[in-house]
What does this fold into?
Amino acid sequence: MISATATARSGRKAARSTGGTVDHGAWFLVLPALIPILVLSVGPLLYGISLAFTDAQAGRTEPTEWVGTLNFQDLLHDTLFWESFRIGLLWAVGVTVPQFLLALGLALLLDQRLRLRWLARALAIVPWAMPEVVVGIMWRLVYNPDAGILNETLRDLGLGSGQDWLTGLATALPAVIVVGIWAGMPQTTVALLAGLQNTPHELHEAAALDGAGAWRRFRTVTWPAIRPVALAVTALNFIWNFNAFALVYVLTSGGPGGRTRLPMLFAYEQAFRYGQFGYAAAMGCVMVALISVMLAFYLVGRLKGGEDA
Amino acid sequence: MTALRTGRAGRAGQYAALLGYLVLLAFPFLWLISTAFKPPRELGSLHPTWIPVNPTLANFRQAFDEQPLLQAAGNSLIAALAAALIAVVIATPMAYTMARRRGRLTTAATGWVVVSQAFPFVLVIIPLFLVLKNLQLINTLSGLIMVYVVWSLPFALWMLVGYVRAVPGELEEAAAVDGASRLRTLVSVTAPLLAPGIVATALFAFITAWNEFFFALVLLKTPEKQTLPVVLTHFLGAEGVADLGPLAAAAFLATIPSLVIFAIIQKRITGGMLAGAVKS
It folds into this structure.
């Protein structure tokens, strides 16, 4: 059996090196997915980038013209956009960091042999499975100034009469961030838990025998093992959070007074409320560019940080 | 932080923390259910209770009266089913190729899977909107399905590549040695082993499409075409003044399919994500 496999393997290698028919087979297998990807993903992406250099608008009869970098120059002076960008960064960092810490705590707990672990595992998935729109609606009910459970609990505890969280100028962004943290915790927890379960158990035992406390064991054994996963997860979460739309659209629609107007909401309004396709596309380009640069710095810094980071 | 030498106090702390997480995760959903069964008088009360005093189904009836929920659910079902089936049918052969051979194409496809996660939807949706408009596919489910297929491909490929790698190549080689043709090997050796993974991927693509909001909001204009998440936002009203009872009832109903499917595939998804992440 073993020798048969070996011959088969060498036979296959020979077939591969002669190429020809095998490659036709590969193309045949790949094309059904490749065509939609090229036509509906790569193509539109390039088209979108090129739109940023035009004056494309919705429902206009004259042909679209090239305007060079005019959109980008306008964007540079658009204080509303930069305010929205700043809110987007606050939101993305404000969601990603606590989300990671809370998810790490939950993953560490779920990695233990605790009772009720099954229940926590099942519940931890709920926010992930729900439609984002429903998550938004649900939290609107929680935050509702009169019929909401949050204010009622505060009143019961004698902590004031509560407030209108989502329409208050000061409370809207923090309130929305809390929902963002809640909604994104499951994916992060699952990824970290997977990383934890790949940690060699013997190392823990050895460290424990050497008298290392829980914190030292976490620092020296657990963290180095899950660091790559943690890095990838925070980077991805940051991107996803920065591009978030549905949650905040349902919770506040960007209000009050633009306090929660994330860049995606801003771009959506420009494109589909005011029909400024070219301008909105330019916004998309600027968002991608700036986020890529920030992430590059983050990842390079972390990777260089080496063992003790 | 393993269970090796955790003292009694440590254990108690862990249970307290776990309880905290349970409450944090569960309470908004419980509140949604509670609100869905409350009569208007309790919803207007300044001292809402966790358990409805006089539970009622009136909110559900009113929800169906106010918005075309059944039609919206039908639209969602068609879009999600079609998108999931098409995505899996075209992604499986490609994932198989990506898993079994290395080359420029595999590298490029993997690169696309990663990069496509980073692009803001707005940069993709404007050109897609214009393209679909030229094809007269705005405000049609077919247009939406096309977008969903492409949108779910990166994750479907990612999961499927992991599942294909989990099928040992030696099995296929053994079949080849026994004289089975390539097609025969794929059909009778690989496919059965891959089937659970394919089903899990399809179900995941289904949920993603069922839950999706942004593309549906942009592409579907008239209420009779819209999917469930878009129709749900109509309950919110123009000024954000919402009729809480029907809103909660409809939102609760819209969640049930996702929760049921997710419960079924929960383990497989975690497994698939892991498998996709492991490079052989």
